[in-house]
Amino acid sequence: MSRQRKANTKATPKQDPARTFSAASTSPASGRSTTRVTWNTPLFYAIILSLGFSLYQFWQGQSAARAYQEECGVRLEVPSAPGFNEAVISQLGWRPPKLSEERLFEVVDLPGRGKGIVALQDIEMGSLILHESPVLVVPRSLNVDPVSFVAHQISTLSEAEREAFYGLSYVPADAPDVSPAIISTNAVAVGNGGIGVFPTMARLNHGCAGAFNVVYSFREATGEIVVHALRNITKGEELLTTYTDTKRPRHERQAYLSSQYGFECSCAVCSLPPSQSEHSDKQLTKMSTLYGELAAWGAAELSGSQALRLVRAIWALGEQEGYHSERGQLAADAVTVAPSHSDGEAAREWAAEAMRWFAVELGEEHPRVREMQKVFVCPKRSGVWGTRQTERVGGVH
Ligand SMILES: [Zn+2]
């Protein structure tokens, strides 16, 4: 700028300083305005000041990015800009669906299969379908006889609650006192080793592998069970959860479900024709084997990139099998691996994926989503940063 001004000054008569800097010049004859900016006009100084300010801002942005890289282990542009976290999180490509005011499901009688829950309308992936408090909780450690504890709990229930409790199915069907059988058949973990019975949620039937479409989780904060849609569900479809780890062959799944819950599973995966069922069994068994191999990273028997290759392979098998559950945890495993090997970019990618899937499976306000968000925003603060050999472990794709 100064060189240009000097050159222009030389070529310009001193008596006409207006020619030293011309921002715009048009002929008056054309009828358009003529604007001349001289080196000593306020506009000239405003331009210089504005350029200087832009340069200062650029320098500030660069030094903020450097400081951020130092602090968080990942290079980002203008990380200090207001709303940065919100902006990056909104780029994840998934929005939690709005809570529906309408009832999304109803409990119905299913011919030959007892009761079940069906969708009353189309339900979007990640929707909160149900939240429910337990009618009965049995803590892990009791200093009284469990049978009398349960009897006392039941005596405190309202008539409607008691009816809901005794209306639940149970195994074995010929139990002399049905309440322990109802509890062992229907109760789910409620934290701290306790179990609870949730009469509506307990109406969810089982589906194996890619056949189940909802997941339940317990909320410590509210003491409720919540059920979320794992994928888009169409009106009239039965809502199915899973009672067990179904990453195993059909005969093993069915034997377990029959002995534990007293039914022969006829879900979509169990009903596949023999050749397809065999293929599906192989895929599910492979998933389980790969999970086992992935655990070796914990014992430092695998490099970071080997571990993440396994994560990607499990992910791909899940995609082929329509098995979309557990993806939050799978991505969260990668979120442990990547920062351990000081790979900030990979940590961010996997943290974004984990946030997205935890939000679908557990709800966007779940602590696991927040946990992943922290790593997404600043990988170096993950608590495991640099605990393993530095390595480019690779992102999601
Ligand atoms: Zn099945």
UniProtKB/TrEMBL annotation:
Keywords carried by this UniProt record: Membrane, Transmembrane, Transmembrane helix
Domain SET: 103-244
Cited SMART domains: SET
This protein's record includes keyword Transferase: no
Compositionally biased intervals (Polar residues): 22-34
Transmembrane segments: 42-59
PROSITE patterns to which the protein is assigned, alphabetical: SET (PS50280)
Region (Disordered): 1-34
InterPro entries assigned: SET_dom, SET_dom_sf, SET_domain_protein
CDD domains noted in UniProt: SET_SMYD (cd20071)
Top-level taxon of the source organism: Eukaryota
Presence of keyword Zinc: no
PANTHER family, per the entry: SET DOMAIN-CONTAINING PROTEIN 5 (PTHR47332)
Protein name: SET domain-containing protein
Organism: Cylindrobasidium torrendii FP15055 ss-10
